[in-house]
Amino acid sequence: MSCRPSDISLFNKIINVFYFLIRIESEDSENEASLGNVIRVVIRPAGHSGKAKKGHLCFDASFETGNLGRVQLISQYEYDLFVRPDSSNPRIRLWFNFTVDNTKPDQRVIFNVVNFSKRWNCFREGATPLVRSSSRPHWQRMPRNTVFYHSSPFHDNNYILSMCFNFDKEEDLYQFAFCYPYSYSRCQAHLDNLERRKLPHFNRQLLAQSIQKRRLDLVTITHPKNMVAQQGNKVHVVVILARIHPGETPSSFVCQGIIDFLISNQPVAVLVREHLVFHIIPMVNPDGVFVGNYRCNSTGADLNRFWGKISQWLHPTLHACYSYLKSLDQDKNIELDFVLDIHAHSNLKGVFIYGNTYNDVYRYERHIVFPKLLAQNVLGFESANTVFNRDINKSNSSRRLYTIFIFN
């Protein structure tokens, strides 16, 4: 078989284009994956050198839960912001939390967050980012008429978040966030404070350590007589997990509220402590929370997709949670009644439940009691968002694993 010179020339051109496209895709992926948090980066106008002047904004995300990978000056007033991907997982980009200072009075800017990996998110549903400053330390939602989530022709028609903001005090440090931050340090401070009170119905212990040697805490709340299971006297146990996904910060606020209520002197709290033992793990993914990831731990693993294939070395907190739950289930003096895994959703509103379906009608009816109680007692419960299924894509999530391997 012979080829004409023109055929060979055309073939070589095709090969060159192919390799060029591969190289571009590879470079884009590497650039995205190699982003680290900005550390006191001052953005100067083109052609300016030397000491930064007032109004040359200084961006920083080098703090706990911080996330901002890169800043690009578009014009005198406009900046493109790039979210840092989750550790070792360039596909996950949603959480941001950064500070801005070195402003001048009444400096007006537009911030565009341009590289979200999830097109459908809470901003499309009308949510707005949070902002606070050193002189106004309480978080506030940005007004809706200053925030726009839109398809941008200047960014390949990708959806971007544009925020219009006026820096009104030059001496202030301003902080912007995707949602209300709840850090690992805040969780530790809360538990330290409760531990110092030496409450007889509260116990805290170290269940395990994360890859980066942070605490995986186990909190037990019950009447003192139930702290140790007695032979022949079964205790009923409720297990609560939270913050397996770092960016789902509302789950930590809910979990803290549950803890604070259960240790209180409220009549209902006193009553349930008499009859139930609560085991609470308030932060399943402390490394991911600390470094400012949205969904993954420090190795890039979405822990809620690894319950069915846990590695003691790659997922030590998951391994500890699973081992502890299994030990509770195998203890003949313990009746493991209920496991609640608290999450937050990036685009659905209200309070709702994700559960399983069963062929056993009696078991299914028991399973829907808790959602029914929520619907009757919780303002903002969204029954339309409540789902019971056996989706194969969620086969390694917590609610699937506990059903299959523990509670049969």
TrEMBL record:
<protein>
    <recommendedName>
        <fullName>Peptidase M14 domain-containing protein</fullName>
    </recommendedName>
</protein>
<dbReference type="Pfam" id="PF18027">
    <property type="entry name" value="Pepdidase_M14_N"/>
</dbReference>
<feature type="domain" description="Peptidase M14">
    <location>
        <begin position="180"/>
        <end position="408"/>
    </location>
</feature>
<dbReference type="InterPro" id="IPR050821">
    <property type="entry name" value="Cytosolic_carboxypeptidase"/>
</dbReference>
<dbReference type="InterPro" id="IPR040626">
    <property type="entry name" value="Pepdidase_M14_N"/>
</dbReference>
<dbReference type="Pfam" id="PF00246">
    <property type="entry name" value="Peptidase_M14"/>
</dbReference>
<comment type="similarity">
    <text>Belongs to the peptidase M14 family.</text>
</comment>
<dbReference type="InterPro" id="IPR000834">
    <property type="entry name" value="Peptidase_M14"/>
</dbReference>
